Amino acid sequence: EGKGKKRNPLHDFKKTGELMLIKLNKTLEVKTKLLNTTEQCAKRCSRNKGLSFTCKAFAYDRVTKRCHWLSFNSLTNGVRKKQDHAFDLYEKKDYVRNCITGKGADYKGTISVTKSGIQCQAWNSMIPHEH
Question: Which residue numbers delimit the Kringle domain (predicted)?
């Protein structure tokens, strides 16, 4: 990155237009606040600033300019997708990505089997292989 150029915080998010997530599981957390831009929402989500949970996604209400930070995403159990013309959904790519980059140290997705169908070894296990 060049000097003076700021990185766009939306780069880390996958956008789905006109979609909102509805939590069916009451333990999932949401926090909302009025903010003028999706970039401000993304920055706060990436830094987890002022949030009591790890932000995995946010929905931006274009009508009320309200940001809804979510402790869940579209792949979380107990969540339903809802078509809503007022909202755009932004999910952290790290949590919805189905591929592993590099050695996978930052992988947060849901893939737990190899291409050939073998169950993956848990990260906290040294059996059958050492890391």
Answer: 98-131
| CATH superfamily of domain region 9-95 | Hepatocyte Growth Factor (3.50.4.10)
DSSP state letter for 9: G
Residue 105, both tokens: 């140290």
72 in Cβ contact with 3 (< 8 Å): no
End-to-end distance of the chain based on CA atoms, in angstroms? 33
Phi-psi region of 128 (alpha: psi -120 to 50; beta: other; left: phi over 0): alpha
The string of pLDDT tens digits covering residues 49-84 is 899 999 999 999 999 999 999 999 999 999 999 999
The model's pTM: 0.76
